[in-house]
């Protein structure tokens, strides 16, 4: 029991993971979106997502070739909100990003990060 609590709080001890969680408190995202949102390479993002899943904070589901991540349940979401994680401001919030996601082929050149992700999730 103590081990799972240690994992949970260790998972919250990283700026990139807090950034990921701040977006996921709004809605679900494809794993491929987090490289643009965090300005980290896909391998690094995948490691962070794995830590959050293993800590029991996130869940995921496969939709075709995409993996969609979300907060595991409402109780965890409420706890994260009470900790102020939604207020974590990512370094690239609203900035222009460039490139095409290798997984979903979403074009990221002309939209802000928020517009790109909103469009991607609506599809």
From TrEMBL:
Keywords recorded for this protein, A-Z: DNA-binding, Transcription, Transcription regulation
GO molecular function: DNA binding; DNA-binding transcription factor activity
NCBIfam families associated with the record: HTH_metalloreg
Superkingdom in the source lineage: Archaea
Database matches in SUPFAM superfamilies: Winged helix' DNA-binding domain
PROSITE patterns per record: HTH_ARSR_2
Domain HTH arsR-type: 1-91
Pfam family, one: HTH_5
Stretches assigned to coiled coil: none
Name this protein carries in UniProt: Putative transcriptional regulator, ArsR family
Classification via Gene3D superfamilies: Winged helix-like DNA-binding domain superfamily/Winged helix DNA-binding domain
